[in-house]
Write the structure tokens for this entry.
Amino acid sequence: MSSARKIPSPPPSLIEALRMGRRVLIIGHENPDGDSLGSSVALARALCQLGKDVTLGYRGRLYNHLLFLLDQLTSSLVEVEPSDLPKFDLMVLVDCAHPNRVWPGFSDFQLLPPWIVIDHHPMDPPKSGPMAIYRDPKASSSGELMFSVIQSLGAVFDQLMAEALLAALMSDTGFFSQANATPESLRQASVLLAAGARSDYVVGRLKRDWTQARVKLLRLALATMELNLSGLLSSMLISQEMMDEAEASLDDMEGFVEYPRAMAGSEVAALFRVDGHGHTRVSLRSTANYNVGELAASFGGGGHSQAAAYTDPSPDPAKARESFLAQAHQFIKPR
Ligand SMILES: [Mn+2]
């Protein structure tokens, strides 16, 4: 049973920092997902409403299915290098707590303007860190925290802000289908719909709009579906050969981990796929019975208890699946 728990309010120091900032950079983790980008867009619009000079920064890839969030953006959109950072007087990190989640290997803390964190990952920010932190690993999404930040700022939800936040909530709760979809996240969704968010439009942009390449890639990927570990693990592969045959891009496999996840009896689902850098990216999902955050951490990755990921150095997803199975049998067993 989910609790009717309310998330704590943002710390006054964080709201104060946002009120004082003039040239504000908002940036999410590398290759921002729907939660990271949706929350960032909503905050960007709220701060524009308050008259700030806002830059929406990003690092890495902007996924096709999220580009609708950037329609009618009133702030500038920039791929930010660390050397750009001194231009700002406030940086807001969204959906991550450490600058090295934006710029891998980042260590030049001298470059950072004063910065704050809005995040729901379990990872701690660096010690020499942010001015203020609003972090709650129990929140479904950074969007859920951003909702409170925007309300505390006294900004008014317009349709585009509401749709950006709804996209954030939907992305991280699997369209309110997962255990982290609480009465609070649904209450927020209700407020967002009342503010004009069109849920049919947001769902359509996030999960429909399939390319022919995506259909072809899925057909090939489904043929690799396997059940292992007494059926507790279901997994699927996407190799470079499959990508070539389908003429697919990395965007075309977005969300494919849902297919192994749908297998009856499966408690842990895994997608082993090429990552575009010659390695294999492994996405893990689990039921509440297994903590894949810990499992991913044992392979050098991380994430949440029911959704996590890591990178295997092998270019061959089938090899990565073998390495995973060699260790995971100790972790994924009948209980
Ligand atoms: Mn998130």
In short: The pocket of manganese (II) ion is lined by residues 35, 95, 120, 141-142, 172 (CB under 6 Å).
